């Protein structure tokens, strides 16, 4: 499974990659430090990720703007997007779903909980979810 992790915090990206490696399955992870970098990558990619993990609060182009642009793009709109944020504010959750997020997860502060969350998420997406064929030639 190919993932795109969009998060401005380098430590969070490193913890995420380490937690994914502990899930027991191999997944390819691309990283972007903000929404602008993520969108540039996606618009130029030869094939698209199976899942985007998107933080909300980032400089330059935040997760809210990025999600809106993803869902407005005919090429990108069908990529599942999971918001993973420290925010649990009802406004952020409702806004994310209204804009087209497929899931909203609150980042756990405990590394063990992060591994459990990612194991469940990635098992769901790699085993049970049927995704549209987005491979480009």
Explain this structure:
It is a single chain. The protein has helices at 10-21, 35-44, 63-72, 90-99, 111-128; strands at residues 2-6, 28-32, 51-54, 81-85, 103-106. By secondary structure, it is an alpha/beta fold. The chain has a single domain, classed as Rossmann fold (3-Layer(aba) Sandwich). The chain has a five-stranded parallel sheet with strand order 2-1-3-4-5, sandwiched between helices. Strand 4 (81-85), helix 4 and strand 5 (103-106) form a beta-alpha-beta unit. The chain starts with a strand and ends in a 9-residue tail after the last helix. InterPro entries: CheY-like_superfamily (IPR011006), Sig_transdc_resp-reg_receiver (IPR001789), TCS_response_regulator (IPR052893). This is Response regulator. The modification 4-aspartylphosphate is found at residue 55. Residues 2-122 form the Response regulatory domain.
Task: Write the SSE topology.
Layout: E1 2-6, H1 10-21, E2 28-32, H2 35-44, E3 51-54, H3 63-72, E4 81-85, H4 90-99, E5 103-106, H5 111-128
Parallel strand pairs: 1-2, 1-3, 3-4, 4-5
